[in-house]
Amino acid sequence: MDQKSADILEFNKILQALAFYTSFSAGHEMALAVQPAVDEQEAIRWQNETAEAYALFQSGSDVTIGPARDVRESIDRANRRFLLLAEDFLAIRDTITAARTLRRKIEKVRETYPVLWEVGELIEECPGLVTAINKTIDDRGVVLDSASSKLSKIRREIRVVHGRILERLRGMLVSHSAYLQEPLISQRGDRYVLPVKAESKGNVRGIVHDNSSSGATLWIEPMGTVDLNNEHRQLKLDEDKEVTRILTELTLRMADQGDSIIRVVERLAEFDLIFARAKYAGRINGIQPEFVPWRKTAEGELHPGSTVWFKSTRHPLLDPDTVVPTDLTLPEDIYIVLITGPNTGGKTVSLKSAGLMVLMAQSGLHVPCTEARLSFFDAVWADIGDEQSIEQSLSTFSAHMTNMIRILEQADDRSFVVLDELGSGTDPAEGAALASAIIDYLRDHGSTVMTATHYPELKAYATTTAGVTNASLLFDLESLSPTYEMTIGLPGKSNALAIAKRLGLDNSILDGAMGQLGVGSNETEQLLDSIYDMRDRIASDEAGARLARRRAERDREKLQTRLEEIELERDEVLKQARAEVEKELEMIRNEINRVRKQVGKAESKNMLKKLGRDVTEIENRPLASLSQTPLIDSVMPKEPKGQKRRKLRVGDEVFIKTLKSKGEIISLSKTSAEVAVGRLHMKAQLEELEFRGRPVKVEEAISVPKTQSPGMELDLRGMRVEDGLEQMEKHLDQAILSRVPWVRVIHGKGTGRLREAVRKSLTKNPRVFGWEEGKNGEGGAGVTIARLEKVKAQEPAV
Predict the structure, then answer these.
(1) Residue 704 has pLDDT above 50, yes or no
(2) What are phi and psi of 499, to 5 degrees?
(3) In 691-787, which ranges are continuous DSSP H helix?
(4) Is a pLDDT exceeding 60 seen at residue 636?
């Protein structure tokens, strides 16, 4: 990466924003040092890491770096045999533990996130170190008594001697209370002393270690405790010596595995960077770009076969709520774009966005676009902004030319070059000629180039040169402000005279200016106007068509879902009905078996007659019972008594009186019908059939849900045509369902593209009775009033 070009494109600010999402110093350092990948496969791997980390976070995983610390400096001291402190060991322990935890969590999901596991499995265990530290030092950084038997013995003796000192001093607090300033035991240095009144110095034999600022109190170590204090002091020295020996031994153990510990920190820093890239992608609403191979071109063709396609690009350093998306999409036959447009119209932002998209994509960062495809470039070169230097006595032109020479010496057919105001800062004629020659040079070398210019000569150059095209940033003559929307393929219009006219410049002056420009220039501007108008109409129609297609697809999905639900409900009803029939038949079988047994046992003629009547009753019961099954009746309601006979149709469900069972009409004649009863097809006279039900239409089964009113006003100002139409369709849907009589659509005046698209969409919408332009006081041409149909409430379908 050329560092100067990266700084010009403000890639360093992107890295600062990325570093904000790191968790510890090693990751922060790595984020600030990010460089684009050296080859395409490395860039793809980085992108896959970012995508998997983003998906991992979206799944709700609690994976983090944990309490990791950059302990490489501590390991360096250990390697040079400097004694590590207790806090150094605790930091090493926490880092190794955090690495182990992270490795286990990634291992559990390695099937889902294999690219992350490729990094995670490189984390080393550093065996024995965590256990050794835990056995030596507690969480407060104190060396444990159990660290060695000798230390344990020394500390036991210290406690015994300390107890004897306190016991003796407490006795003196009582026996010498008259000579003490107050009854307390204190320390001076590491010696235990008593506060003795100055005038009672002779009454307490001992060593004076200190006195109060007033001189009224002397801190005296009584002679009776001097030997004990000396013993206590010696034991403390022995303790310090043993602790130093223990920590030295532990330091050497850290040094033995120092390389492994350093690699653990590096793997954690790598994960920290990956997680930071994922979090940053979420903040800028970025997507994973696709790297596409360089296209093969015909022999002798200058086009390098590059791809640059960034749809709805948002500059990552601008406010996402206010930035206007720009399409940086180069057709396949184009590799050099000349951008024209007004000052402050967004040319420089567009150029920087293009350069940043390439650098970010090749550095593993997701890009703030809706669609992103690009070739892998070996280098990105940039010359943007005013580099005038007083210290080096360089003018603006000289500064740009110095940088330009450096770029031209190194740019090739695998380079992406962005240039702002090429040839500016000198005589316009010479500047235009120089700019044309530089572009020719880059074109001959196959470099992919995006450049901004004010020179009208370059518009003609782009029109007549293969592989080169114009691009323009639009200007709103109504508001006298740029729209920041880029159009690739058309040169920018000259708005100077139009702006002057709108601001009120005298018509005679304008006519004079038009005369000096000549007829050809005027005709060219008129032709551009007509091309832009045609393009706007086509874009509006395309946006409306895409919106209608999406709406039709949504409706089709809703109907398909409802059909599937109805089929499931039908299957469930039939399943329940069959279960009830089986239950009824089982009861009948049981009764028949009971009667058969009683026939065999019958002892008289009367009993046989009675059993015969029972059999007849059983024979007549099943079909009658089944025909009156409550579940079947609820699904296939009977025709009310006294009602005029319903005209039968194919598909109707009917009750066949002669068979006492149900069927479905599959064909009809004047006097008879073919009816399907299960798998059996039969003919029956119409008078033998009784209507039981008709299939419910899908559209009748979908009821109008109640919805909350979205309001009677919709503001679309600042939106793109397609986004505005989609937002309006959603608002109208909710407004109609909530019975809002009309909606006031605010689209502004602007270029008129959004207004024309809104009104065309309202005209085609069958649910809109009509529309009218806002009256004075309502917004005029910047507002359209849509009158809506009323939705009749429907009962939910069963």
Answers:
(1) no
(2) -70, -45
(3) 698-701, 721-737, 753-764
(4) no
Could you give the maximum distance between any two Cα atoms of the chain, in Å? 142
The Cα 24–Cα 69 span in angstroms is 6
Q: Where are the beta strands (DSSP E) in 575-693?
A: 653-656, 661-668, 672-677, 680-685, 689-693
In this structure, how many other beta carbons lie within 10 angstroms of the beta carbon of residue 600?
6
Which is it for the CA torsion 228, 233, 237, 243, positive or negative?
Answer: positive
CA-to-CA dists, residue 100 to 63, 66, 74, 93, 251, angstroms: 12, 10, 20, 11, 21
Amino acid at 389: S
Q: For residue 366, give the 3-state DSSP assignment.
A: coil
pLDDT at 519: 45
Question: Quick check: 31 and 15 in contact, CB under 8 A?
Answer: yes
Asked whether residue 164 carries a pLDDT value surpassing 80, the answer given is yes
Quick check: helix, strand or coil at residue 220?
Answer: strand
Query: CA 541 to CA 554: how far, in whole Å?
Result: 20
Give the closest residue to 8 by CA, choosing from 354, 484, 438: 354
User: Token pair of 679, please?
Assistant: 């798998």
The mean pLDDT of the chain is 82
**DSSP letters spanning 643-672:** PPPPPP-TT-EEEETTTTEEEEEEEE-SSE
Is residue 520 over pLDDT 50? no
209 vs 682: which has the higher pLDDT: 209
In angstroms, how far is CA 161 from the centroid of its own chain?
Answer: 66
pLDDT tens-digit series, residues 654-669: 888 876 778 888 888 8
8 A C-beta contact, residue 45 and residue 115: yes
- Quick check: 651 pLDDT over 90? no
664-692 tens-digit pLDDT: 888 888 888 888 876 667 788 888 888 88
In contact, 24 and 268? CB cutoff 8 Å: yes
Mention every residue, 6+ apart, whose C-beta is less than 8 A from residue 352.
9, 10, 315, 382, 384, 418
Give phi and psi for 232, each to the nearest 5: -65, -40
